[in-house]
Amino acid sequence: MRIERRFTKRGQSPYEGLAFVKRSSEIRNPDGSTVFKLDHIDIPEHWTQLAIDILAQKYFRKAGVPQVHEDGTPVVDAAGKPVLGGERDSRQVFNRLAGCWTFWGKNHGYFKTPEDATAFYDEMCYMLAFQMAAPNSPQWFNTGLHYAYGLSGPAQGHFYVDPKSGEVVRATNAFEHPQPHACFIQSIEDDLVNENGIMDLWVREARLFKYGSGTGTNFSRLRGDGESLSGGGRSSGLMSFLKIGDRAAGAIKSGGTTRRAAKMVCLDLDHPDIEEFIDWKVVEEQKVAAMVTGSKICAQRLNAVLKACLLVDAQGLGQVELDMKKNQVLRDAVTAARRDMVPEAYIHRMFDYAKQGYTHFVFHEYDTNWDGKAYQTVSGQNSNNSVRIPNGFFDALERDGDWELRRRIDGKISKTVKARDLWDKIAWAAWICADPGTQYDTTINEWHTCPEDGRINASNPCSEYMFLDDTACNLASLNLSKFFNVEGEFDLDSFRHAVRLWTVALEISVLMASFPSRAIAQKSYEYRTLGLGYANLGTILMKQSIPYDSPKATAICGAITAIMTGESYATSAEMAAEIGPFPSYNKNRESMLRVIRNHRRAAYSAPHEEYEGLTILPTSIQPEHCPPAMLLAARRAWDRALELGAAYGFRNAQVTVIAPTGTIGLVMDCDTTGIEPDFALVKFKKLAGGGYFKIINQSLPPALQALGYTDAQIRDIGAYCAGHQTLKGAPFINHEVLRQKGFDDAALERLEGSLAQAFEIQFVFNKYTLGEDFCRQKLGISEAQLADPTFNMLKHLGFTQEDVAAANDYCCGTMTVEGAPHLKLEHLPIFDCANRCGRIGQRYIAVDAHIRMMAAAQPFISGAISKTINMPADATLEDVKAAYLFAWKSMVKAVALYRDGSKLSQPLNASSDSGKGAEATPSVMTVAEKVAERVLVRYLHKRRSLPARRSGYTQKAIIGGHKLYLRTGEYEDGTLGEIFLDMHKEGAAFRSLMNNFAIAISLGLQHGVCLLYTSPSPRDRTRSRMPSSA
Asked: First-to-last CA distance in the chain?
């Protein structure tokens, strides 16, 4: 391959003209405690603090790296041995990545000349340092550690294909052949312990998670609950094994530096356990709610019982009194505990506890933190779940027909359900807890480039990589904002150049990689799938004053995606001409060229009848809305891809996906990820393992400038949205008021130094920022208060919630542009985000706009798109069903949606909940009400006593041959207060049931519970977990 220079010059450093400065990284929890800190690290001067934190905390190697002095000479100990430590200079990371790719490419014939290899190295270093592109996280973690530092270690069971012999080899060193792939799809057999069986899959998943990768599997081969076993027994079913795999994944967190283990669980819609699978996470979320509420009720009620066991006399002496006839307080406490369903055994345990002299009982209380013990206790929290839906199901849905669930062993029908009922169940589960997502099986396989070798059954965790089982894909994303100049012009030549180089880098990564199984190593060698994508689409639209929800936005999205994939396939064909096509190309040549022709037709907006083998037709680029230069470049890219591919074949079976670009998007200082709009203008992101980031959209000022606002107006709008980041001049809580409260200049300076990264001012008023001595001596805060995690310092200082809110708006901003000074109403759509922004924002991007954007990109992507359809909290079940159906009709391959607040806790928020408890620590009942967030009607009446003498009536009835008498008791005003049901036949079991039923009804009447009942519809009768219509 010939490599031209576009960003660097021969003989100069790739970092020429780029200033590197000493910076520090510190990540804190909301309470101010430090999670991670690293000082004196060398970083490009233009990088934001957020990007620095990501690089330092996530991507710097922490051990085994030879240390060097400022002049580059190695640091040695007294024995003359190199001193080892962690990476501290961003250039170390850039050099080991680009150096490793260049080393492998040069040694295996990817470059025409040594100068081409040097140019490739320099250009890649430049793009990394200038945040123009980034590979997926496993590359940052693993690539180049052996090449750059000589790291070695025991093999972890990986395999690789020897590039020279083409034979699969077992790795002998954990670092020499790194694991650079982020995305894996693994197969599973209906076998318990043999190779490729159920338990073997957990081992293979562990190898991936350890090095920061994710995996997906279709579990439809596993037999359903109750199906026969070879030994004569019955299977425990799919779900029992999924729960085992989920716990195994949750125990692995990629060495503690990355997200929790990522996996996708796919299931075909005709699996006999599909209904239980759909409800899986719904039930688990309910368990969390029950644990949180129940633990807090038990802790309060049991300690109240324990305290009440001790009677204190007039002399102040305490005596244990367990006779509830003599101890009214104990009687009330026990009654309250029983009313709240505290287990009887625990109540009696308090009596025994009191006898032994204890006065406090420790009952562990859970919370709804997504990284807390409650969520860790339940299953299903370490995977994304998706159902695979063929077009045949939508046919059945349209005619309101039946859908057959089939056993895995003999293929016979195990159950027949209404397609409409199954569809309702999917939508309801997604509405409740954001899972399952949908994958449209027919569409996926109609765009399959290698159908001769099998179907596509599953995806990676985020649904962007879809290919054959036992294959892998390594990803990289281009930062689109770096290819637009200040005038909004797209630098086509630089973009094409970047696409070409990163396609080569990803192909080399296949060459050098190791894999968790022999089958994956072999198939990755044979198909060589790549995943080039982009990030920051939402940012470039905002900067160019183009609303995300507009025809022009979708046209630009389609054109950019078409250019990227067309150029990448053309580069793949170039490599095929030099090195040869992927080994399985010839068998799949006609199918792959058919797919390439369909891509090209979408770029040319071809008539529908020209498409080959498609049931649902793609959304083509709309010429009337697309910039002419982009449209021309998109069409030429596909002309070239088809021409070169037909002549030489392709080196890679797939070349592009649109990945979520979460962490790598942050290291590139992207305001938006992948194809997404911004989540919110200001975001609060909790991190796995502790800490948080405050993420502010940096596109607001340039977008306002492009719209013609003056510098003064831009400052006012920016301050309104993101705040002044100081308490100087703030209302209610400012330097003057704080000085009156005991704050000195040093304390104020510490506060001011922390405000820039604070999501709300509450986050900096803590002992970690101010120091414990200052809090005790100057502010009069006790040790107990400082140790209490619910302690609110601002409330202690006398500030009300209204005071805090006003100061927050001034210091940290309203986090929305709605209501901002100077901003014209017609410009608001440009700044719309996926969710309502801040506390007062009301605008958000429509659900269908997300799907239309996916539909614009999908015809030009080899794989698929990782994208969340964000829905407001008030979205309905019908909205969910409409979104899933619209996505299928739009030829989108997969969809995941998230209704705001559908989970008890979420790591990314447009506002924090810190102010919700500012006025008082919530009671148990308050917490119970918050957790049980889907309770529609709440009755708060106390029990109303009936008069000692009351009137009523007697009604005789015969039901099912049994004669009974209904007797009533009434209040003075004639309202019903109790019922009695007497059976004519004494001793009948049915009579005792009726008595208990009557008692329950009577208690309900006396507590004011509404007993009106409305019969459910026929459809509701089939959905026992749906909220009743009562």
From this structure: 71
Single-letter amino acid, residue 1007: H
Bridging pattern class, strands 65-66 and 894-899:
unpaired
Give pLDDT tens digits for 731-743: 999 999 999 999 9
Strands 384-389 and 437-440 come out as parallel
DSSP 281-340: HHHHHHHHHHHHHHHHHHHHHHHHHHHHTEEE-TTS-EEE---TTT-HHHHHHHHHHHHT
Residue 843's pLDDT is: 92
Report whether 652 contacts 507 (CB < 8 A).
yes
Does the pLDDT value for residue 961 go beyond 80? Answer: no
Query: What is the β-pairing status of strands 20-28 and 34-44?
Result: antiparallel
Angle between helical axes of 274-308 and 924-931 (0-180°, round to 10): 180
- Cα R_g (the chain), whole angstroms: 32
**Phi, psi dihedral angles at 561 (to 5 degrees):** -65, -40
- Which burial class, exposed, middle or buried, applies to 152 when counting CB atoms under 10 A from its CB (0-12, 13-18, 19+)? middle
pLDDT tier for residue 943 given thresholds of 50, 70 and 90: low
Q: Which amino acid is at 439?
A: Q
CA atoms of 699 and 831, how far apart (whole Å): 9
C-alpha 1025/C-alpha 428 separation (Å) is 10
- What is d(CA 387, CA 390) in angstroms, rounded to the nearest whole number? 10
- Check 176, 227, 284, 464 and give the catalytic one: 464
pLDDT (tens digit, 9 = 90+) per residue, 592-634? 999 999 999 999 999 999 999 999 999 999 999 999 999 999 9
Task: Identify which of 444, 400, 445 has the alpha carbon closest to the alpha carbon of residue 422.
Answer: 400
Phi, psi of 448 (to 5 degrees): -75, 125
Separation of alpha carbons 235 and 441, rounded Å: 27
Q: Is residue 327 annotated as part of the catalytic site, yes or no? A: no
Quote the strand ranges of 847-925, DSSP E.
868-871, 894-899, 908-909
Residues 728/732/735/737 CA torsion (nearest 10 deg): 160
DSSP 781: -
Q: From the CB of residue 226, how many other CB atoms can be counted at a distance below 10 Å?
A: 13
Return the structure tokens found at 833.
């985000």
- Given pLDDT bands bounded at 50, 70 and 90, which one contains residue 924? very low
Torsions phi, psi of 879, nearest 5?
-65, -40
- What's the sign of the alpha-carbon dihedral 1013, 1015, 1019, 1023? positive
Note if 173 is an active site residue.
no
Measure the CA–CA gap between 545 and 539, rounded to whole angstroms: 10
Distance CA 794, CA 775 (A): 12
Q: Is 783 helix (H, G, I), strand (E, B) or coil?
A: helix
Active-site residue identified among 462, 721, 811, 812: 462
What is the pairing mode between strands 84-85 and 437-440? unpaired
Q: SS in 3 state form for 583-634?
A: CCHHHHHHHHHHHHHHHHHHHCCCCHHHCCCCCCCCCCCCHHHCCHHHHHHH
218: left (phi over 0), alpha (psi -120 to 50) or beta: beta
pLDDT tens digits for 256-271?
444 455 899 999 999 9
Q: Can you point out the beta strands (E) in 467-508?
A: 471-479
Closest to 508 measured CA to CA, from 313, 651, 644: 651
C-alpha triplet 748, 754, 758: angle, nearest 5°: 125
Q: Are strands 133-135 and 894-899 parallel, antiparallel or unpaired?
A: unpaired
Helix (H) or strand (E) holding 198: helix 198-210
**Are 598 and 591 contacting, i.e. CB atoms less than 8 angstroms apart?**
no
From 136, 327, 460, 697, the catalytic residue: 460
Q: Is 996 a catalytic residue?
A: no
